[in-house]
Design goal:
Largest sheet of chain B: none
Number of helices of chain B: 7
Shape of chain B: elongated
Mean pLDDT of chain A: 82
Strand content of chain A: under 5%
Distance between the termini of chain A: 53 Å
CATH superfamily of the largest domain in chain A: Winged helix-like DNA-binding domain superfamily/Winged helix DNA-binding domain
Low-confidence stretches of chain A: 114-129
CATH class of the largest domain in chain A: Mainly Alpha
Number of strands of chain B: 0
Oligomer: heterodimer
Helix content of chain A: over 70%
Helix content of chain B: 55-70%
Number of domains of chain A: 2
Distance between the termini of chain B: 84 Å
Radius of gyration of chain B: 30 Å
Mean pLDDT of chain B: 72
Largest sheet of chain A: none
Chain lengths: 205, 186
Amino acid sequence: MNNSQVIDAKKLFATSQEQEWITQAKNGSQTAFHKLYEMHHRQVYALCWRMLADKDSAEDVCQEVFVVLWQKINNFRGESKFSTWLHSVASNVVLSHLRKQKNWLQRVFSIEDQVKHSLPEEATVSLDDSSELEELDKHIAKLPERARLVFVLFAVEGYRHEEIARMLNMAIGSSKSQYHRAKALLKESLKESLSEETLAGGNDE
Amino acid sequence: MNKQISDQVLASKVDKLPKEMQPQRDLWSGIERAIQDKSQHEPMVNKKSNIVPMAWAASFIAAVLVAWISFAPTPQLSTPLTASNNKVLQPTSGQLVRSMQESFQQQKQAMLVSYGQPDMTNLPAKMQTQLLELAQARKTIEKALINDENNVDLLNLLRFTQQQELSLLQKLYPYMNNKNIQWQTI
């Protein structure tokens, strides 16, 4: 038996195990639901963290995602992979959370742009919490909210612009332009950090 | 130093992003507490099966309400159900429906007698049609009550429809004995 066959067998076992837990969770088994949580919560948390750029909010919303999942798991009909369906549930819970969080002032004024231009260091992410994060994640967290959401959903989660536009209640063109904006900002900040590293390296010498 | 970051470099960095992150605190205990009190929703398939009768009931009530609005009932006859009315509408058995039907027929008959048993065929065709439609609505509710005699909503709807019918008769009285009065929106 070669390595690929071993991997396939493991995947098959994991899938059938997951299917069993889903069935049991649908019948009200919290033990099976806990297994599903153990299997998926790190991925869901990663999605929440990237979309919210805040550790505490990400943890709270990740909990909310699994509470919603418990309530809605009977709606999963197996037409897609469970993880794909779970990520769409999670994305919607995050967006719903963001809508609830927005106060009237944020709706009237585009504060995110002001924050970007005047207070770049005051982005919601705390670098103390993200010291172990990938460099790119730190830069994503500093993006303006809408650009960040579009970038994460498109580039990381693999949604299409049509889907993102529907989810974020924006035009498809806006989704595309926010994505390009996010890319430009990321390239710029990555370039800057690269320059700083080079400078720091030069000083050490 | 001024090296540009290309799309490919950025895409490669995105591909290397970890798929998973570990939350710092234990999230399960909170989830476990929350789901203790939350029931699981029924699958969407079951929900859909409930939608048809609900939609039917909603459409029917809407139709009666539209009829009511178009007939512009007088305040004295369209007052909301009072405490005493509610008492009357307490569902007990099929006798309640029969009692309501009898009471309505008595009121209607008394009203027609007081008007001198007018000839309804004297009414303009549009008025006759509206009167017939309202009577038909009342009969439909009565039929529905045969199978669901303790349905409070249907009982209230029957009561309401009966009131509208009596109200319309009252409004049509001037037209019953005078063909020369022109039709106008009531």
